[in-house]
Specification:
Dihydroneopterin aldolase (chains A, B, C, D); two-stranded antiparallel sheet; alpha+beta; elongated; MptD_sf (chains A, B, C, D); Pantoate--beta-alanine Ligase, Chain: A,domain 2; about 35% helix; homotetramer; 6 strands; about 110 residues
Chain lengths: ~110, ~110, ~110, ~110
């Protein structure tokens, strides 16, 4: 037996793993960050039960880390993500933030 | 409030999204399928709470689909996946299979 | 010995392989195609010697192919790409287009 | 006009960009490195004109970098790659190595 809330949490996890592993490694600079933020959010919002996604690329961290070539490859240390998943009346809110140097994906609420 | 079972399902979803979007698009042929199956499974087993992963690339479907160049890009229609996630005593079993031409990721059991 | 023209062609190839394998598999719909086009172009323009990139996602092909979920995963059949690489005075123009059902990356000119 | 040598260099670049952006971000540990090395090499060898690929994941660098979770995400700092491309009688040898902290893809020889 799987409850609707469990299924909703499973769906939320799929979206996070998808977002991260689709876009990790993308060349990104302070100038190109806004178009990447938007494309990441809109791409994942296509997936089933995904009500909304916001992606924030940390421009300061990016500016500090860019190498001589003026860009870096996207990793979790540069992004904060919030998502809202809706499945059969269950609303799941999730977030990804850095914690102890590790990009932690977590369930914020299941309602 | 988030229960351990919900968290376990969230973790299971992360692994599925990761596996799919990390490896979709990989050039694969009947000859290279075994090494890719193994690498996919071992890569995702590195992730937290991931007890076991098995990946089966459908050699027949692959052989039929390979183009003049002798290979295709990996998509969900060629793979079946089973995973076992263990989180705080909760065991989640998941599977990905084709259903109506769409690669469906699903929760098989939460115990 | 490697000539500047050969190096320029090598650089052009890197950009094509990068663009394709970074973004293949991204969920895309007619609505989200414009943001993805722009993010793909701006991401690759970050790379060294890459003067300009244009990405065109074929909205008609996309609309036809979208499944019940309203989106597809990006593959070469949906995109046309043009790039201009400049290396030590050599200008390389490249394009990706469908040819016999296969997304062909080709050198258009080396000057 | 494009020469065979230029085309061969373009093909070589495509393979490097493909390899890097397909697999960057893959979870990897000292234990799973061998299966990933092999899958990366065999995947890219499927591509046209690609005679051979060798991938070496630096086990020491990996062991040092693994976090509390026992793995890292693959980036250029952990891998060395050699490839041999053959196109219409032209042989191109290429390599990727770290140089000043940046994973440099380069043409070793065109013959």
């Amino acid at each position: 037996m799987v409850t609707d809330a469990q299924q909703a949490c499973f769906e939320a996890g799929i979206k996070f793993g998808s977002l991260y592993h689709q876009f990790a490694g993308t060349p990104v600079s302070p100038d190109s960050a806004p178009s990447l933020e938007r494309a990441m959010a809109e791409a994942i919002e296509n997936q089933p039960f995904c009500a909304s996604v916001s992606v924030d690329i940390d421009a300061d961290a990016l500016a500090e880390a860019t190498d001589d070539h003026g860009y870096v490859e996207l990793t979790g240390r540069f992004i904060e993500v919030e998502m809202r998943i809706e499945y059969e009346g269950v609303v799941v809110r999730t977030a990804m933030e850095m914690e102890d140097g590790y990009p932690l994906m977590r369930l914020v609420g299941v309602e």
